[in-house]
Structures
1.
Amino acid sequence: EGSPRRAPARPPRGSRRTGTSPPPSGTPAATSVLPSLPPRCRDLQRQDAGRRQLPGVQVPLRLCNKENSKLRHVEKDVLIPQIMRDRAKELCSDKVQAFTKCCQETGVLMVVKCRQENTALKDCLVGYYSDPSFYEECKAEYLKQREEYRATGIKKKRQKFTQNV
């Protein structure tokens, strides 16, 4: 009555048994996983065998679905707007250069003296940011990049916009 209860002794951590034994090597469960995958995933798995890939890079099965065009929040709110900003800066490059030149020439007084250039730059950029067709173009570009990444596992380097000042 007064003795403390003891928990039964446990086996070492890596040797726990779940009560199920692995199937014998000749059963279908132990054979290749490829037959149960969708056709696109099987193709990707076969391509992986012949393609030189980075070590440890595999195509996750949930990404094999070609119809997987749903966007996560980070894609909608961060990644696509980032592409939009980069492309809008390229398309408004003349106004960006004019504003940059004005700021470099005036120094501290740029807030007062560069209002016209700043307004022109903002109007150009906001025009692209608020254009639904421009958003769809950037979304299509992002989905293409994402599909390439999911197929190859290799990230494409983004080209940075450089100013010729």
Note: The chain has six helices and no strands.
2.
Amino acid sequence: MSSSSVNKAALKLFCHTKGCDLAAHWVHGLRLLALKDPVHTVSLQQFVYEKLKAQQELLGEQGFHALMETVDTEVVAQLQEFLQGF
């Protein structure tokens, strides 16, 4: 028996004994799961900043600047604007 089947069986038993709506309980569980998704829990600015900083540390100052020179100037401008104050 798969864990999915076990979860559904346990949910049916819980809902049967508690008299709840199975669909509503299932949707509630999905919402709770979605709230744990990094898209809802991690700051995009912080994430981008940390990734760029890690690349800078990995490549060194000169290597990072050489890499950034290959990036479209509009993208660099947008990144700078996005990360302003960080």
Note: The chain has a mean pLDDT of 83.
